[in-house]
Amino acid sequence: MASNCRKISPIISVVVLFLFFIFSVCPVESVNFNGSNQNFHSRKESLKMRFIRDSLMKINKPSIKTIQSPDGDLIDCVLTHQQPAFDHPLLKGQKPMDPPERPKGQNTTSSSMSKENVQLWSLSGEFCPEGTIPIRRTTEQDFLRASSLRRFGRKIRRPIRRDSSSYGHEHAVGYVSGNQYYGAKASINVWSPRVANHYEFSISQLWVIAGSFGDDLNTIEAGWQVSPELYGDNYPRFFTYWTSDAYQATGCYNLLCSGFVQINRRISIGAAISPISSYNRGQFDISLLVWKDPKHGNWWLEFGNGVLVGYWPSILFTHLRNHASMVQFGGEIVNNRASNSHTSTQMGSGHFATEGFGKASYFRNLKVVDWDNSLMPLSNLRVLADHPNCYNIQGGINRVWGNYFYYGGPGRNSRCP
Fold first, then answer.
1. What is d(CA 195, CA 333) in angstroms, rounded to the nearest whole number?
2. Average pLDDT over residues 128-144
3. 260 phi and psi angles, rounded to 5 deg
4. Are 361 and 331 in contact (CB under 8 A)?
5. In a domain, 120, yes or no
6. Biased-composition ranges for Polar residues (predicted)?
C-alpha cells in the first residue's frame, strides 16, 4: 500500500503546482462567483425591462392629444379604431357597433352624465375630440408595482363562491339566482376606503355571471375600486373587468388587454372618480347599467343617465353568449393577513351597515334586465357577508330607493381580530 502511494505522489505534486500557477496568474477571474452572480441578475433585470417595454408598446396606443389629470394621470386620446379591443384576433378589422335598443323602463330624462364632470381628469371641462376615446396611460411604474408581470392587469386565479373567503377575498353582497338574466342595474355609493397595504384592494361592484364556479366561469364586472398596486394611489376609480375562464387566461381590468370596445370620449375607464362621499356629509353615487343587446347579443355598459361607455362583444364568452344565471352586487376586499391578524382594509365607507345613510355605504335601485329587454325590480334578493364581524350587510326596500342595501365595515376590530 505504501509503495502505491509513493508512485502516485509525483503526479499529485504536478497537479498542485499547476493549480497554484493558475490561481497565482489569474486569481480574480477564475473564482469571481460574485461577478457571475451580478451578471446573472443584470441579464434577468434586462429581460424584465424588455418585457415591460414590449408590453407598454402593446397597451399604449398612439394618441392625437394627451390631457394631464390633477391626480397625475396622463389621459391619451386614441383614435377609436386603434383602441386595444381591436388587437383581439376575433375583432381585428372591425369597427364599433351602433348603440343598441335600451332596456324598457329605463329613465330617459334630458339630463345626462355626459354633461357632468364625474372624473378628475375632466374637471377642467376638457375632453377628447370626436372620433377618439380617452385611455389612461399605463407606465413603467405600474408594471414595477405589480406582484406578477405576466398577470399584470388581471385578478389572481380564484373561485368566487360566496360561501367561502378562500384566497383572502371577503365579500358582503346581495345576489339573485335561479332565472335567466340579461343585465343588471344599480346606483353605487362612492367612497375612498383605506387600504392597509400595497397588495390589498377594496371594490364595490356588480357582477353578471354565467357558467359553473369551475374553469368555465364567465363574468362581466363594473364598479369602483381602490387598488394601490394597480394605480399607485388610493383614489376610487371607475373600473371594468371580464373573464370567460374563471380568471385564468382571459380578460383583464379596464382596457389593459383586448376585448372591451369603448365608444365614449368623455369617460376614461380606470380614471379617478370625483366627487366622493364624506362621512355624515354629502353623498355621491354612480349609476351603472349592463345589458345584453337583443339584436346582436353584445353586453353594453352605461355609466350615468344614458351615457354609453361601450360593450363586451358576445364572441368573447361561452355561457354569456346566451344569458346570465346569477347577478351580484356589493363589496369585496383582499385580506392577506400581513401581520398575522385580520386586515384593517375598509369596505365601502369603512362603517357597518347598521349606521345607515350618510355613514354606511349603499347600493340602491337594484334591478335586473328580463328576457324581453325590460328592467325589473328584484323579487328574491338575498344578502350574504363572509365575515359579518368584519364587514356586514343589511337589505331593504322602499318606494324611493326600490331594492337597496347598506354594507361594509372597518375590517380588523375587537370582534374581528
1. 9
2. 97
3. -70, 130
4. yes
5. no
6. 105-115
How far apart, in whole angstroms, are the C-alpha atoms of residue 366 and residue 170? 21
For 347-402, write each residue's pLDDT tens digit: 999 999 999 999 999 999 999 999 999 999 998 999 999 999 999 999 999 999 99
Name the CA radius of gyration of the chain, rounded.
27
**Alpha-carbon separation of residue 266 from 33, 84, 110, 116 (angstroms):** 57, 17, 18, 10
* pLDDT for 229 beyond 60: yes
Q: What is the structure's pLDDT at 45? A: 78
Range of the domain at 298: 164-408
Half-sphere exposure for 230 (CA within 13 Å, toward CB):
29
In a domain, 46, yes or no: no
pLDDT value for 44: 75
Among the residue ranges 91-100, 155-164, 318-327, the one predicted with the least confidence is 155-164
* 240, three cell numbers: 371594468
Instruction: Find the length of the chain.
Output: 417
Q: Report the catalytic residues.
A: 221, 332
What is the total count of domains within the chain? 1
Give domain status of residue 194, yes or no. yes
Q: 108 and 307 in contact (C-beta within 8 Å)? A: no
Q: In angstroms, rounded to a whole number, what is the distance separating the alpha carbons of residues 214 and 243? A: 12
- What is the four-CA torsion angle of 297, 301, 306, 307, rounded to 10 degrees? -130
Q: What is the CATH number of the domain that holds 184?
A: 2.60.120
CA 325 distance to own-chain centroid: 22
Q: What share of the chain is helix, strand, coil (3-state, %, to 5)?
A: 20, 30, 45
Q: What is the pLDDT of residues 196-217, one digit of tens each?
A: 999 999 999 999 999 988 889 9
Tell me, rounded to whole angstroms, the distance of Cα 95 from its chain centroid. 25
Residue 9 has pLDDT above 60, yes or no: no
Cβ atoms of 76 and 278 within 8 Å: the answer is no
Q: Is residue 2 part of a domain?
A: no
Handedness of CA 99, 101, 107, 111 (dihedral sign): positive
Query: Model's pTM, two decimal places?
Result: 0.87
